[in-house]
């Protein structure tokens, strides 16, 4: 599983990345967490508001810091 955290590096983006990494560790999921800060790559994914999260190429959240429960739900299925 690959989880991309999309954002230029603002505090909300850092918070989102931190939460994603915490949930992955708590669940013991074999996932690679990637931080994407390149605007062109972010735009290619159809995202124009950050932070955003994509799981295996599917955008799950745009323009907000997701709750841990949301992240856990994306990881579980």
From TrEMBL:
Pfam families: Thioredoxin_3 (PF13192). It comes from the Bacteria. Keywords: Disulfide bond, Redox-active center. Residues 1-75 form the Thioredoxin-like fold domain. SUPFAM superfamilies: Thioredoxin-like. InterPro entries: Thioredoxin-like_fold, Thioredoxin-like_sf, THIRX-like_proc. Disulfide bonds join 10-13. The active site is at 10 (nucleophile), 13 (nucleophile). Coiled coil: none annotated. This is Thioredoxin-like fold domain-containing protein. It comes from Fundidesulfovibrio magnetotacticus. The lineage of its organism: Bacteria, Pseudomonadati, Thermodesulfobacteriota, Desulfovibrionia, Desulfovibrionales.
């Amino acid at each position: 599983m690959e989880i991309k955290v999309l954002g230029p590096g603002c505090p909300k983006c850092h918070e989102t990345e931190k939460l994603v990494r915490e949930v992955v560790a708590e669940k013991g999921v074999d996932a690679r967490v990637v931080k994407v800060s390149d605007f062109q790559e972010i735009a290619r994914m159809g995202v124009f508001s950050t932070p955003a999260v994509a799981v295996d190429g599917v955008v799950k959240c745009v323009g907000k810091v997701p709750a841990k429960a949301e992240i856990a739900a994306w990881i579980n299925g």
